[in-house]
Each structure stands twice: as structure tokens, then as C-alpha cells.
Amino acid sequence: MAKKSSEKKVAPVQQENEKAAKLESFVADSTGELMTTNHGVKINDDQNSLKAGERGATLLEDFILREKITHFDHERIPERIVHARGSAAHGVFKVYEDMSELTRAAFLCDPGAETPVFVRFSTVAGSRGSTDLARDVRGFAVKFYTQEGNFDLVGNNMPVFFIQDAVKFPDLIHAVKPEPDNEMPQAASAHDTFWDFISQMPESAHMIMWAMSDRALPRSYRMMEGFGVHTFRFVNAKGVSSFVKFHWKPLLGVHAVAWDEAQNISGKDPDYHRRDLWDAIEAGAFPEWELGVQIVPEEDEFKFEFDLLDPTKLIPEELVPVQRIGKMTLNRNPDNFFAETEQVAFHVGHVVPGIDFTNDPLLQGRLFSYTDTQLIRLGGPNFHEIPINRPVVPVHNNQRDGHMRQTINRGKTSYGPNGIAANDPQQAKAADGGFVSYNERIDARKIRARSRSFFDHFSQARLFFNSQSDPEKNHIIDALSFELGKVKAVEIRERMLAVLAQIDKGLAGEIAFALGLHIPKIPLEELNNSIPADGDRADYASTNPEGSLAKSEALSMAGTIKDNIKTRKIAILAADGVDEKSLSKVKDTLVAEGAVVHIIAPKLGEITSKGDKKIVPDESFLTAASVLYDAVYVPGGGNSVATLEAEANAVHFLNEAFKHCKAIAADDEAIQVLESTYFFKKLPADYAKETVLREGIIVSADFNELASTFVEMIALHRFWERENPRKIPA
Ligand code: HDE
């Protein structure tokens, strides 16, 4: 078995915990070791196969060659059918206060307990090698290694879902995946099959608004909210249950990139989110989220305009506030992508005593799917023995054998009840921590049907749209115009316009204009084409009530945290002759505020400052791109300014940063570089601070003022107002 090496390199910032200690016995480190076969025989030569003579044929006898090639031939396993592309990190979770009034889950009742976690973020539709910046939902799956076994909160970065019943999931995924005849397009919903399906499935209207919003283009996994989506149950020690919705609230705020930027990033750095997460953790800038819960007492189940069991609905925070009950910190990158990130197996059915399910039909179907998929993906029923999946507490039961069994179970019995082994392992009493399912009363007929309380498909879609800021609304309109513009079949576009008109006529009108179409008048009962063969269309007709809430602030990203610039990436453009004071004053201020600053020069190697100091740039214009940065600064220094002004890449860098609404700062001496950009003429003649903050551009000779205002500007994230008029040549 693998061994512990005293020389194992652990970055100083990385934190250890109980799960990390348990994983340690599986870690292999070859530093200073001799090469062996898988059976421990030392290898003398693994670069030349065994041949009959120097120029002769390779001999079948060569067990070293055969083992090496055979293992290689089997290195790949099936990728996840959805959420194939992901990145993960280790961390810890701590609850703030004892939650035992609501739940008996021990890890939520002891503020002193630190629970190890492993979190995997993912896109949904793309395959393993696809880009991070696809317009898509993001998976947000958390495995808590609690003292009562594993609890998996397998959520997304959007609080609702496309469909109301798990039986439709294969249809949804077949529709969004690349089309089956030509396997195109990869990691994109902008194609006929997806919108063909969606336009006949009005229950997806709410989720479509989320998926077409900026939420689908996160700036970073570290800047996304997470949601458990379904309504779950908390159950306390007395057996009293309440409904609960889970939330993750990122302490860095919720931020997005622009669609044009996302498309560019996909080319310049398809690993953008993966790298961002990895780099932040390596640098010790540990991402943090607060765990939030919305609690609904059992007796209030029917108090809402929507059904708590309907996964296309959220509970507006105005109706039930989110209580923040604990904090999660990700503080260690995995040692091995395959062994950990790829082999981790989440399951929405992994719950601990005190957390239970509701009858949400989407949740119920998921309970079946996750084990089923792991059986083939991870090769058999023993995937729970893979180190990353093992709980930190012991496992004892009568399950035995199967492919790749690791545990060597002692004794004669593998059944219960047994007399031979005194009936061990014994079932656990509830008082000893045994899981007891919530005693919900069910008295019903078997029926394939949906409750009418699920049929309002539009009021929350409208609530979401109405809650967005103007730039966010524009982005939704642009996104839908883009996606439907990529759809070839006119009847699909038209059907979709009819659906959108149910949400908001203005929204549908703008998209119809972009598509050069009219909105067809399709009555509500005609919109839903997902009805059973013997179903009556009228029985399945959507309803479209007004909804009593006009707006919900929490649904917009506009009011998110904007008070710091921690981990934001800032570019400083420089060339030979740069004024080193101008460069370092701004750089030092940004670094002191926690930003990551890169100097970008016409070439790599060294540049020489005005004062003859050697400066080593981090990137050249060839290796860097403005889309990989949040803001840009141009320091002074006559020669540097003259070089940058004449350098098309530098001017393009600034133009693009402007187009993507980013903060731009320049030393007064570098004004010529700005003058070479197309946007300069838009600047007001006097750079008063208020104007500067609105426009996100500052030019000043006072480095102190410049640096501190630049920090404020970067914290605001983006200046979306600049998109009007939205015709920008970059
Ligand atoms: Fe999943 N989902 N899902 N899902 N899901 C999978 O399990 C499934 C749904 C989510 O990082 C699969 O191990 C069905 C909602 C995440 O490893 C599979 C339905 C939500 C991940 C599966 C849903 C999710 C998955 C594929 C409809 C948000 C990635 C590989 C009822 C609450 C976990 C795997 C990771 C993965 C089935 C809907 C979240 C096939 C049948 C809703 C974050 O089992």
C-alpha cells in the first residue's frame, strides 16, 4: 500500500483536519524512491522493451511493458453524464450556534466542532475537456465528513430547476447536450434541440430566466451563491420537523463576467475558473461561504402562493429570511485530480440523522439516480471505499464482496440476525444516533399526475425579471436574443417568444425585434406539450397569476458585496522607461488590499525603469489578455508611454477592458496611451471623483488619490452603464 513520506511537500498555507489525516495513509509520494512494478519489483529499465536482439521483435514475456501499457489502456473511466467538468477543494465547516431546536444533526449542534468538507464545482452540459466559461448552471456539491457519517449537499448556483419531475431529466439533458447526429455544439444551450424542448415545457420558464442571466457566467466559483434547490426537512431530537431550504452565501459577493468576455476567456484560458480556485487557495486567499437556511414550520406548509415541493419555485427572502448559521472555508487543494475530484461520488441521499427528505418529485428521482450512476462510473458497488468517499467514522454492516473490495472483513458472519457473532454489528437505537426516517403520514392513491399547485409557471419568472437592475435585464434580453438567434427552426423561436410573452411582454418584444419576428398568440393551454397520452390539455394548462410580490432584492446581483478587492486580478501595462514610483505606488496599494497584480510588457525577460531599475514582467502581451483581468493601470514614464501608445496590443487591451466595463486607471503622464483608445473621447474633461466613479476611469497625477480611488472602483466590479450605446469596436 502507499506510504507516508516525511518529505511530502505541503504548502504552508494548507490546513489539516480529520479527513486530511485519514487521506494521508493513502498518499503516495515518489520523491527519492526507486521505480517498481505494481507488485513491488524494482524496475531496471522502463524505457526499452525486451526484444529478441537489438533490432528484433518485442517479446511477449516483457511483463514491464505489458503492465505499463495495460494500465495505461484502462486509465479513463466514463465521465459524469452531467457535471462532467469540475474542480474541487478541501475545507472545513463550522456552525455558529447550536441548532438543536431545529435539527439533531450533530455537526449543526456543536459550535466547537470543525467538520471537514470536500467541495466540487462544475458546469453541467459540457464534457470533461470543455470550457469553464460556458453559459450554464454551475454545480455546487459539498460533502460534509461529519461524526455521524457523510452528509452531501448536492446543489447548484441557481435556486430552482428546469423541470418538476425527475422522469423528465433524461429528456432535458438529451436536449441540451450536443445534438446526436453531429455532436455539436459543445457545452452550449444555444441550439435547436434545447429550445425545442424548453419551448414546450413552460415549467422551465423560471429557470430559463436564471440560466439566461449573469448568474450563468460567474466571475469565479468563489463568487457564486449555492442552493440546495429542493425543500428538505430538519428534524429535531423530539421528532419535530420543519422545512428547510439551504443557501451558500459567498463572502466575496456574487459577481459575473460579460458574455463577450466569457466567449473570449473560453479561448484564452478555458481553465479560467479551475485556475482561479486553485491559485486563490495556493495563495492562502481561502474562499468562504456562509451556510444559510430558510425555515418554514411544518404547520405553514400551505401558507404560500406556490408549493414548497415544487423545485421550480424559490421562497423569496422577503417572505422567509435567510438565517446564516455557519461558515465554510476552502483551504486545501486536492493532491491528485483523478483520485479526488474525479472519483468523488456525491449523492443527494447521503443524509445524517436530523436531515430528511420531502416529497419533491425531482428530489425523489435524484435519490435513485446517484448510486446508479456511480455503479458504472466508478466500476462497482465498492466506490464508498475510495479514499475521498470514505466517511471519517467507521463503517460496519453485512455488505460484502464485489469488484475491488478493499475491506478485509473478519469473522464468520455476514448476515443478521446472527447468533454466532452475538448479532454484531448491532442496529443503532435512535438515542445512539441511529437514523430514523421522519414519520410523515402518507395516505394516497397511486397516480401518474402532477398537483395543480405546481401549475403557475410564470409568476416567479416574472418576479426574477422584475427584480433585476437595468443592465441585468439587458443581459437577459441579449442572452435570449443570442441563444434563439442560434436556433435555426423559426417555429421554435416563435414558440419560445410566446412563452416569454407570458413572463413579460416588453422582454418578449425586445427579443422578437432582435429576431425579426412577431410574437405569436398561443393560448396558455396550448403552451404545454408535456401532457400524458390520455391527458386533457386543459387539465395541464399553465396558470399565470400576478403574484403578490413585485420585486425581491436578493434576486439581483446589483446589491451584492462591493467593499473589497481581495483576489481581483489587476494588470499594469509597462515597457522600458516606466516610472517606477508610479508603478509601485499603485501596485503596492492594490497588493496591500489583497489584489493579485501582474505587470504586462511587450516581451518577457526584463524591462528597465526610468530610474534604471530592472523589473521582471509577469506576462507579455502575447501570453496575457485583458479578459483575464478585472482592471488595468497604465503608469507614466515617457519611453514606456510612447511604446505602449504605439503598441496595438496595449491599446486593444484597454479598449477591451473598457468594453467589458472594467475599472481603468492611468497616471496623468500616460494620458497619450488612453488617447489612442476609442473610448477616450467619451471621458469628461474634468475628472471629478463622482464622474470617475460612475465611468470607472481615473487619470491623475496624484498617485495617492489615484491608488485609493482605483481601489474603490475595482471593488464596484463593473460599470455596466458603459454598455449604452452597446456598439463598441473591440
Ligand atoms: Fe444531478 N446528477 N440530477 N442535479 N447533480 C448528477 O451524478 C440527476 C439535479 C448535481 O460534482 C449525476 O455523480 C437527476 C438538481 C450536481 O460530482 C447524476 C436529476 C441539482 C452534480 C445526476 C438531477 C443537481 C450532479 C451525474 C433530476 C441541484 C455533480 C454524475 C431529478 C440541486 C456532482 C453523478 C459532482 C450530478 C442525476 C437534477 C446537482 C446522473 C436524475 C436539481 C452538483 O446522478
Automatic annotation (TrEMBL):
Residues 36-424 form the Catalase core domain. CDD domains: catalase_clade_2, GATase1_catalase. Keywords: Heme, Hydrogen peroxide, Iron, Metal-binding, Oxidoreductase, Peroxidase. InterPro entries: Catalase, Catalase_AS, Catalase_clade2, Catalase_clade2_helical, Catalase_core, Catalase_haem_BS, Catalase_immune_responsive, Catalase_large_C. The active site is at residues 83, 156. One of its GO terms (cellular component) is cytosol. Residues 1-22 have a biased composition (Basic and acidic residues). It catalyses: 2 H2O2 = O2 + 2 H2O. One of its GO terms (biological process) is hydrogen peroxide catabolic process. SMART domains: Catalase. Heme binds at residues 80, 120, 169, 366, 370, 377. There is a cross-link at residues 347-370 (3'-histidyl-3-tyrosine (His-Tyr)). Belongs to the catalase family. HPII subfamily. Decomposes hydrogen peroxide into water and oxygen; serves to protect cells from the toxic effects of hydrogen peroxide. This is Catalase. It comes from Pedobacter chinensis. The lineage of its organism: Bacteria, Pseudomonadati, Bacteroidota, Sphingobacteriia, Sphingobacteriales.
